Amino acid sequence: MTGYREAGVDLDAATRAKQLMAEAVRSTYSAAVLAGMGAFGGCFDLRAVWGEKTGDAVLVASTDSVGTKTLVAAALNRYDTLGYDLVNHCVNDILVQGARPLFLLDYLAVDRLDPQRAAILVSGVAAACREAGCVLLGGETAQMPDVYRDGAFELAGTIVGVVQRERMLPRNVAVGDIILALPSSGLHTNGYSLARRVLGPGSAYGYDATPVELGGRSIGEALLEPHRSYLAAFERLETAHVPVRALAHITGGGVYENLPRVLPEGCGAVIRRGTWDIPPICALVVRAARLDKYNAFRTLNMGLGMLVIVPPDTVDAALRTLPEARPVGEVVLGEGVQLIDD
């Protein structure tokens, strides 16, 4: 088995690093912090700073990057979709708290500045922001020739959104609630260090390869499929008056690490395999890396793009509103996530 650690990404080390930095981060908190380290988006209560004149507005912020998906784009000389990866990932993370995006700041770091490439990247960020109703407020471009190797770059961003305090998620999650899955479009923006190792140049495949399971698409095309935004789906549920109790954006750490973040103490989840479709590119990575079930669902999203937790008596209404959604499990007594075969 070629695991994520062997590909250069140590999830256990990441968890330990967060534990070691937690005290320093939390020492800066004030009464305005409603959700901080460990949440999908940090939540800042304006009322705690400026009083009642701000109403019930809570700012929700998140920072992320496209990650090593940029190396696939560089190898294929295709940069037009990476802005969507950045913006949609950030939008989804603050959506987990129920927030709508206000503005985003982008950060582009390069070995040397290629004006044409920079323009394509930022144009993609701007296009994705327009679709999300989000302002691209500003950003930074840094030339760092002694830090990044020739041709390498990083695209990152910080998003700020807003939600009324009484509408913040998660809320009222209870045993028996049903977990719906909205499908991912592919790997989204995590698992690429492993995917590049087992599918990229030097592997038995390569980015130009067209394995039969990809239906005529090349591996490179499948890997560059943009990260989906779930903002419109959430808004359709709200319009249909379907009460959403929680959302979980399945990114790094997979369903095992992301779903428990929105469950109350004493609650776990059961997820039934076989109740949704696994994207072919995810299945190909699993097969090429020879991942076992645990590592597959900890490393990749496996088709679970966004999980939506709703009361059991609203499932039919939710499925009518979002026909692509699939009931994949339920909230149970206990802790953690159990994957069982349906």
Search tags:
six-stranded mixed sheet; Phosphoribosyl-aminoimidazole Synthetase, Chain A, domain 2; 60s Ribosomal Protein L30, Chain: A; globular; 342 residues; alpha+beta; 2 domains
Q: Please work out how many helical segments DSSP would assign.
A: 12
Count of folded domains: 2
**Largest β-sheet summary:** 6 strands, mixed
How much of the sequence is in beta strands? Answer: 15-25%
CATH architecture of the largest domain: Alpha-Beta Complex
Q: What's the gyration radius in Å?
A: 20 Å
CATH superfamily of the largest domain: PurM-like C-terminal domain
The count of β-strands is 12
**Content-based structural category:** alpha+beta
What's the pLDDT, averaged over the residues? 89
Task: Tell me the overall shape.
Answer: globular
The low-confidence parts are: none
CATH class of the largest domain reads Alpha Beta
Helix content estimate: 25-40%
> Topology as H/E string?
HEEHEHHEHEEEHHHEHEHHEHEE
Strand order of the largest sheet: 1-2-3-6-4-5
